Amino acid sequence: MIDELTRLSKSPLGNPTRLAIALYLLPRERATFSSLRKALKLTPGNLEFHLKALEEAGIIRTYYGFGKRPRKFVEITEEGAEELEEVLRILREVIEND
Amino acid sequence: MIDELTRLSKSPLGNPTRLAIALYLLPRERATFSSLRKALKLTPGNLEFHLKALEEAGIIRTYYGFGKRPRKFVEITEEGAEELEEVLRILREVIEND
Prior knowledge:
Two copies of one chain form a homodimer.
Chain A: H1 2-9, H2 16-25, E1 31-32, H3 33-40, H4 44-56, E2 60-66, E3 70-76, H5 78-96
Antiparallel strand pairs in A: 1-3, 2-3
Helix pairs in contact in A: 1-5
């Protein structure tokens, strides 16, 4: 169990805010920066910080869409969905062995 | 679920390493710094960093025992045990609503 948590502490999703971002994105094809920010009640700077870390880790990708005004979109990658599954598996073990 | 994770991100136990420390301490009356460090495979500096944060948050207390040589002991507080219970409850909800 301790080993599992060590694994979690090294995951890009081993942080509640980043885990919340991934859980929000999983069932959605994509989300706008703005909807994500409102759903998670984060400041733009704070969300930007976490998205940058997640994008560098390959968990999400971001891109701009241009309609009436440019909007930033965020989506989870296949690798990100797999990592999320792994993190949820670890958390399940931690809870069950509690 | 997102709200629950926001609560978790504000908890002193909302970090896998600190969660592992609390889970290790819960069933024990106390642990030595050294046994904790070995069980969690942390460097002394890293463990010290997390213990300091947990002690400031009232989750654990540390003290020195003097035998043949001084040893640092760590134990979870009542407040810490309650916070751990709350964090495990939150994680259970995140998993079950997944």
